[in-house]
Amino acid sequence: MVLGVALAVVLVDRVTKILALDRLxxxxxxxxxxxxxxxxxxxxxxxxxxLAGGYTAIISLVAIxxxxxxxxxxxxxxxxxxxxxxxxxxxxxxGNLVDRMTRxxxxxxxxxxxxxxWPGFPVFNVADAAIVTSVGLIFVLSLLGVPYEAPEQxxxxxxxxxxxxxxxxxxxxxxx
Length: 176
What we know:
mainly alpha
């Protein structure tokens, strides 16, 4: 399920970025819900909210590490909410990593395509939204103490050896 959620996030992220590049490249701003929400194309060299712009290569390496850790942990998941949360983080990390690997100015230094804008809030994309909401879900799951893996089963005490079928010893009869 983790990979399914991640794939859905990556697909929606890629399609929306392609549409944003096509429809907003001329600098156009498209109001959606005036004055609270609009679409505006921005190329982000940094991490979330435009932070750490000079560290794009390091951000890329951190994203790769996050992907590896989530894939490893996902093998032990036994809770659907944890699968959704980790799938969202994985999909968001991969969505932005694709931009960092394929966009100018070059491998692991590429700018991320952002286009959702709320006034007074940094411009973001679907991958960013998936990461933030998934981290919020992880926080709630952790606060509630929801385990991400199945509880360990206590070891069963060794059963006494059972005789093989057909080789049972006869019950002792009455002595007489």
